[in-house]
Amino acid sequence: MNYEEFNHFCGSFAGTSHVVQWGNSDVWKVGGKVFAIGGWSDGSQAAFTFKTSNLNFDFLSDCEGYKPAPYFASRGMKWIQQVETSGKLDDDLKYYLSESYRIVASGLSKRKQRELGIDHLAESGS
């Protein structure tokens, strides 16, 4: 996945906003809360950062192509950075970006979810 594909995918979620910040990174938010970052790589290779469940954080921390996210993980937050961007993990990345969106959106107040038109997340549990 490249940054253009990443931005297109993240933009497909309801109630999202995009800003460029933190060293020219593509930062995706839902309800003002970050759920995905494209950038922060070591060098010219693309890297994608997302929030995970505790279980997925523990699992991905030990998987090739992933590492605990710089800045976030060192502060105890469950964020992972995918650094393998040859394309073989694109389907996995889409799943983890979707999960990150769900985790962050579900943490918003019910009022904010209604305002964004995403209150179905709390009702369906997904």
From TrEMBL:
<dbReference type="InterPro" id="IPR038056">
    <property type="entry name" value="YjbR-like_sf"/>
</dbReference>
<protein>
    <recommendedName>
        <fullName>MmcQ/YjbR family DNA-binding protein</fullName>
    </recommendedName>
</protein>
<dbReference type="Pfam" id="PF04237">
    <property type="entry name" value="YjbR"/>
</dbReference>
<dbReference type="InterPro" id="IPR007351">
    <property type="entry name" value="YjbR"/>
</dbReference>
<dbReference type="InterPro" id="IPR058532">
    <property type="entry name" value="YjbR/MT2646/Rv2570-like"/>
</dbReference>
